[in-house]
Every structure is written in C-alpha cells, then in structure tokens.
Amino acid sequence: MLKRIVKGCGFYGVLSLFIMFSAVPFYIMLITMFKRNHDLLDPNNNPFIFNEPPTLQHLDLLLHQTQYPVFLLNTLLVGVLVVLITVLLALPAAYSLARLAGGWGEMVGVGIFLTYLVPPTLLFIPLSRIVADLGLQNSLWALVLIYPTFTVPFCTWLLMGFFKSIPRDIEEQALIDGCSRLGAFFRILLPISVPGIITVIVFAFTLVVNEYIYALAFIQESGRKTIGIGLTTELIRGDVFYWGALMGGALLASIPVAILYTIFLDRIISGLNMGTGRQ
Amino acid sequence: MRQGHLFHSDRLTALALLVPVVTYIVAFIGFPFVMSFVYSISDATIGDPHFSIIGMRNFREMLQDEAFRTSLANTFIFTFVSIGLVVVLAHILAELLIREFPGKWIARFLLMLPWTAPIALGAIGFLWFMDSVYSPFDWLLRKAGLLGHPGDLFGPMSNLYWLARPGLAMASVILVHVWRLLPLATVILIAGLNSIPREIVEAAQIDGAGYFRRLFHITLPLLFPVIGVTILFSVFFTFTDMTVVWILTKGGPPPHATQVLASLAFLKTIQGGDLAQGAAVALFFFPVLAGIAAIVLRLVKKAVVV
Amino acid sequence: MANVRFTGLKKHFGPVRAVDGVDLEIADGEFLVLLGPSGSGKTTLMRLCAGLDEPTAGSIFIDGELVNDVAPRKRGIAMVFQSYALYPHKTVFKNIAFPLSVEGLPRNEILSKVEWAANLLGIGHLLERMPSRISGGERQRVAIARALVRRPRVLLMDEPLSNLDAKVRHTARDELKKFQREIGVTTIYVTHDQVEAMGLGDRIAVMNDGCIRQIGSPDEIYQEPSDTFVAGFVGIPPMNFMEESGVLTGFRPETFLPARLVDDHERRIFRFRIERVEHLGSYNLVYGKVGEALLIANLSVRHEVREGTEEDFAVRLTDLRYYDRATGRRIPP
User: Fold this and answer.
1) What ipTM, to 2 d.p.?
2) Residues of A in contact with C50 (CB under 8 A)
C-alpha cells in the first residue's frame, strides 16, 4: 500500500516537474500581460502573482497603439494563401505518387520529402536575390511565393500516406461503377480523405506561423510584417521593452495555434508514419 | 462504343499531376540550392546584380575568421548537447505519458505547448524569463537565499545575467532548444512505444524479465529506428536553426559567444549584404544534411522491407 | 446477358507469370467458377476481364466485342470485391445508386431501380444506414445489389463469401445461386474454397500457375480429374495416391472400403494397416498404410474398424484412376 502511494507520488511528482518545465514560461507570459507596469518592473516583486490588481493597459497598447492587429492580419493572409497553394500543388502530386506511379512513385515521394532537408537558413540567401530580382522586396507576396518550399514537401508526404491508407478496392469499384479516374478521385477518394486534408491544412498553417527567417530577410516595412518578426521589432524600441504588451502579443498569437496543433497532433504523427509504411 | 484509352493515360496522368510540384520544387528549391554553391565561390552582393567567380577565397577567409570558427563549434555543441538531453528526457516523459491518468488531456496540452506554440513567440517568453533584471527564476533564487549575497550558491550579484555571460548564454540557448524539442521527441517516442506489439512485451513478462531487462533487451532495440528518427528530426531542427539564437542573443554576448552558422550567415547576408560570404558559411550545413539524407533514406528502405 | 471469351490470355508482372495462356469460353447466363489456390492467377484473370489490369498478350471478348482497350466502365460489367468495397461515406441507398447516378439517370428511375435491387437482396430496410453500421452479411448484399442494379452483361465476384461467418456462408451460398438463376446474368466467380466451387458452379475451371488445368461440371471435375493437381485439390480429404512403377494409382477415400463391403468381382484388394480413426460425427476417416503409402478411407459410421488392426480393403476397378508420375496427367483408362 505504501509502495503504491510512493509510486503515485513519484509519478505525479515527476510529471508535475515536466509540466512546470513546459508550461511555466507561458504562465509567466499570461501573468505579465495583465500586470501593471509598477508591479511588473520592480525586481523585488513576486513575478508569479499579481501584487497589484491586474490591468488591461498592455492589451490596450497592443491592440490600439501598435501594428499588432496588422501583423495578425498579415500572418492570416499569408497563411490562407500559402495553404491554398500548398493544397493545389500537393494534392495531385500525392495522388499521382500514391496510386498511379507504381514503384518509382515511392522513390519520387522520398525525393520530394528529402527536399525538406534543404534548410531555409541556407536557401534564404539565393532566394533573397530572387526576391529582389522579382521586385517583391518588402511584399507579402514574396512570402506567399516562397513559403510553399517548406510546406509542400511535408504535405505531399502526409497526403501520400493518407491516400495509401485508403484501400485500392474502393477506387477500383468506382472505376467499374462508371467513373473515369478523375471522377473516382473527386467523387470517392476526396470525400473520404477530408480528415487527412484538414490535417494537412492545419499543419501547413502552423508551419507558416512558425516561419521566421524568410520573413525577417524579405520584409522590412513594419506594416507588412508577420507575427513572428513583428513583435520583436515593434515592441522592443532600442533598449525599451514593452514587456507587458510583448508577452501579451506573443501569448495571444500562440494559444490558438497551439490549440489547433494539439488537436491534430496525433493525426500528423500517424500521417508521417503512414508515409513510410510503418504504423 | 468509344474506346477509352485507360492504360496509356494512367502513366501520362501520373506524370502530368507531378508537373506542378516538380516545377515548383526545381524552381524554388533546386535552382536556389545550386545558386548557393555558385555564390559561395563568387563575390556576389545583394545590391549588385553582377558578380564574378573568385574561387575558394571565401572559404579560405572564413576558416581564418574567428567568428566562423566559433559559430561552427557552437552549432555542433548546441545541437549535440540538446539532442542528448532531449533523448533522455523524452524517454522518461514518454513512459509517464503512455499511462492513463485523470486530466491527461490538459497535461498533454501543457506539455506540448513549447512545440505547438510558434517558435519565435515561445522564445520571446524566454526573453523575459532570462532578463538581466527581471528574471522570475532569479527572483526565485533570491527568495530561496541562493543568490544575491556574498557566499550564496549562485553568486553575490542580484541576477544571473542569463543572456549576457558567454557560458550561461550558451546554456540558455541550449535550454530553449531542449524546451522546444522535448514535446516532439516525446510524441514520436510514444508512437514508437505503442507500436511494439503487446504480445512481445507479454511474452517477455511470462519469460520472467523484469522492467530493466525488458527495457534494454526488448524495448530499446525495437525502438531503435524510432529513436533514430527522433534524433534525425531533432538534429535537423537544431543544427539549422537561427530563430532561437537571434531572438535571445543575436549571436552575442560579444563578440560571438552564441553565434551559430545560421545566424552568422544571416548577419553576413542581410546585414552585411554579402551573399557570397553568407553562402559560404551556410554551405557548411551541407555535409551534415547530406549525412542526414543518407540515414533517412536507409531508414525508409528498412522500414518498407519490414 | 453476354458470353465471354478469352483467347491466349497472358499477364506477366515482370518475371512473374500470373496468367500464362488461358483460353476459355463462358456461355451466356452461365455461372463459371475459377477455382485454385492463392497465386494460381484466378483473381488476375478476373481483373483482366474487368479491365483493371492490361493483358500482356491475348484477347478478351464480351458478347463478341474485343474489349482489350476498353475502360472498365464501358465494358458493361459489374464486380463484387472480397472486401465489398462499399463507399464508407455514403448510405446504403447511395452506394447502390452510385452507378446509376454516374450514368446520369433521372431521380425517379434511380429510386425504382435501387428499390428493385434492394428488395431482391432483402435489404430494403437498411437503405438509410451507413456501411459501418451493418453486419458483414448485410454489407455483402449491398455490394451485390450495387452490382446488379445496372443489369450488367457480366457479373464478376472475387471470393465474396470468404469474409462471412461459417454459419452464414451456407445460406448465403444458397441465396446467391438462386437469384443468379433468377436473373440469369453471366457470372464469373473466383474462390479457393472447393466446396463453394462445387456448390455454386455450373462449370468449374481449376487453375494453377496461371493456367487452367481442367474445365468441367462439378461431377466431371470430381470424378474424372485430368491431372494429379486437380485430383488433389478437389475433394476433402484429397484423393489417395499409390505409386507403382512410374504410375500413380488414385482413388477417392469414399471408394476405399472394407473388402467385405465391395462385392463387385472387378475390384482390387489392399492389405490396409489401420493406424488412426477420426470420428467426425456423420462419417469416420480412417488413416492407415498400404505398404509405405499413407492412405485415408472415408467410412460411414455404421462400419466399425479398430485402430491397430489389419484388414482387407478394396476399391472397385471402375473407381481407380491412373496418372503418369512424371507429368501428373491422367492416363486414359
């Protein structure tokens, strides 16, 4: 009996340590964004609780006196467009590789996946030249054009896995029942794949919001910035940190993405495994 | 009845559907990739559309540049220390998380936050956490009497200066990397643990194997490919990352205490305007990436056979 | 309604010869079973007929029309897969209606045809359910209803009963044969289960290694197998064989009886050492040896034999079959 209590304590004890390790920075961000500056900027005050009543002034600053809403909008815009392009590119490719291409399909699929290994921290160099040459410097279109380079390989791989998990029987049945290949794709395969496609959409979107270096390299004008780069440049002016607004801005943008990602996390991981044929 | 040419069109259709993706990848990944090699042996700059090939001069200059040598060393140090910590911690956390317990979904959400939250935003949180004046962790240490007075465990100064002292700054960057990667590694490991057929574990139990014997003789060997994948992904994300470094320290404290290849390349290219030097720096990723690609290919081949 | 003809049909997958020269003619309205072990080529042959795979050589005719280059949907065929391949995101009604809606038929026509097919298969009450909510047997009927709703020229079925519970299989078999007769559609049926084949087929084509070994009625296949493969594959337990100077003498277990029960003067007697008796309820299987050959006798429970004894057993001469040991082919009587 005692052993069980000790085991239980040990289990929950270690678990709590991990949870604190992961979540405390966010907790701090949460508290900080509502703390009065007078409370916040006193190093002797307890940073984990409200020593003075909470305030909305940082939120007010964030939403009304900075470009934060613009950043959010920009990120959303780029996200939607990039997801669209990604799906349009990846969907037919994934279908081709999963169903039509036979033996060489597997290899091409792996090849596409491997292009993911060419990192943005290398590619940004020639790409910044290309962006400048195309006259897209400072434009969100540069991001829309370039971001699919890291969403498409992964998403093609994911979709390939999802398509492969649908039995061939069902499509062949559709071919016999009167559909052309295209018809079978749209009337049968696509509706069944909707959960997989939604997973891919969510995943691509999180990749977009996470992006930092391309945005930093290509966009200088503050009105065109995305969330990742906008916060540090707008709310850190020289040596002055607008801590409350900074934390608030970071947290507000993190939470929806985190919630979405968590919901689909299992699907994404199993989708990656499916692509390799391992379960 | 009209003939429908089914079979020839299948192959053609397959190729036609691949054209958009392949075109895009060649244009925006393949071509730039080649260009980065060209730039590295040239004198190209962002401003000037023309450039000439100058051979290996960039590489020679780099190898003598102290900033570069430090960056190279840092990149490896950060990566391998982070990976080592992550693999060990992820194993422990994975063992905890495969059990059922009340409130598991909340625990999971909180544990996943470092990964599911966008990287730049999480790093911003650490700016405050590691601030030289306001760090909450420093406050805790002061309150516990471990900091702030002569003879205290962590020193007489009132703050630890996480990001301002070279050694501690490196540790801070590593900490943030570990913090971020732990959830991903854990999830991959859990998937791997769950994929071990129950019968094998049960057979081992019937055969009389205790926990540690099962761990070393059954679980770990079967998990080997999954651990390999985890390490691969983690290496990839850490080795080529510049976001964490840039947000926390921008490569400082001066001169280059936490500089990594990626941030150095960024400095030289975007702030220095020197495409050639930047490319030369960033190309040092290539051997590591080629190595990863080779290992990934072998793993995938093995997986298909199994 | 149509007849089907294969001439010189071959399908090679690289070095693998899945179908290696098949000539077959199936009459209009006939129920033909393709019987064989896995890997014999029977499913590949059916897929060639359906147009899901392209032949390496040879021709396929449906109703006299060469269909080699014709897409599956234009061949006038219907197919039932072993997994039933029901569309998981559509109701039973929509599943059955699918071929009709692809054709673009008007709504009321679709309605009446689906109702006809559903009633024929006795699933009219399931029309609004989703495939995941009905039993295996019901799913099979939905698949068949969907196949029949277009009144196809040829019906192809790939082991449609193998996923059913053993108990349900008998009734399913019975119903299948009954309404095939009623509708009269030319049917090609693939199975590895020889009991099923014997019960269902008008004719059976026994296949192995991509070739047809023998075609005939169930009785012909059973009584006059043309080679040792067919003789060994059809019949449970398989035919007994004894080797005697390059010739295999074969006889079915139920023809191998205690000599006292075989009063025909034209008979052959064997000294049978009985080793083991299996009591299977309605009959007994007696395992034993003649010389070094392991043989099995199928005896009615009325006749008692004891393990460990030796007894004279006999086979009527007319029940003996002779096969060449080297080629396996039947030596004519």
Assistant:
1) 0.86
2) 176
